[in-house]
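re: ur question from yesterday

yeah so i grabbed the chain u mentioned. its 304 aa long if i counted rite. heres the sequnce exactly as i have it in my notes:
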Amino acid sequence: MGDDKNFIRQMENVSLADNILDTLTESQNAIVEKLQQLQKSRDDLDSSYTRELNALRAKYDALYQPVYDKRAEILTTPNGSDYGTPALPRFWLIAMKNNSTLRSIIEAADEPILAYLKDMKAEFLEPLKQESFKITLFFDKNPYFSNKFLTKQYNMSIIDGETEALLQGTESTTIDWFPDQDVTKQTVSRVQRHKTTKERRTKTEVEEKPSFFRFFTSQQVPSNESLSRMTKQQIAELEMYVEEDYDIGIILRDKIIPESIYWYLGIAEDEDLEDDEDVDDEGDDDEGDDDSFQQSYSDYSDSS
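ran it thru and got these structure tokens back, copy pasting raw so excuse formatting
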């Protein structure tokens, strides 16, 4: 997605250029026009550079795949355990937990399930564009859900006035949980008392709870019309949810999958952990931020 602030620019939809041009003289506007023409020449070269760079990346992504296939073959070689990654049990779980961002969303109830994770894959939907991409997690047969794999797809596109692809929404696999195995929900019983009769009754409700598997939720970034009805606080919260969800995908795509052995051994450089330490040094008044990913931005969808 490039600079996450692109998302804010999309939300605000403010044309600063028009305001500046209104303050210039006729001769100054003529100079601006010449500079814009020069900039277009540079932008055309940059587009050519991006196309060639994407082609090079696509070439090496194809070359990496046999390496990843061999890694999966080694990890799934029977050796004591009979599920997940028998050669190194809980390989992917350990690798993910050594990343501070992923560790913050993996709950205790998630860990037995993630032990059945046997491989991960990341791929661009159109390799030569390097925009929309998909993350796939492959699972052995397990007592929690029937899916053989779970996917999360990030739909990206370049909109008018932008040079980088922006997140438009995500598509995720619906997890087919076996009865009483859904770790993303919990049943809560509450005792209620009638105001008049004083009679008591027990009401049972199903609530969402924190879980890594809430990552597999489809969402759409609201339209400008929906955004216009939101408060600044709601927009700020929405931006946070979108960025955190996107960051998870990028960490899996660019860190965990290509450098899994480094993360398993705990020797990979955790840039997110360094950022957290910087925040701690400055003082953190926002408690509970680690749980922010567990919330959803579906409340701000076009249906609202």
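noticed a couple things. Residues 1-5, 10-14, 284-298, 300-304 have pLDDT under 50 and may be disordered. also The chain has one domain: 6-176+211-282.
anyway ttyl
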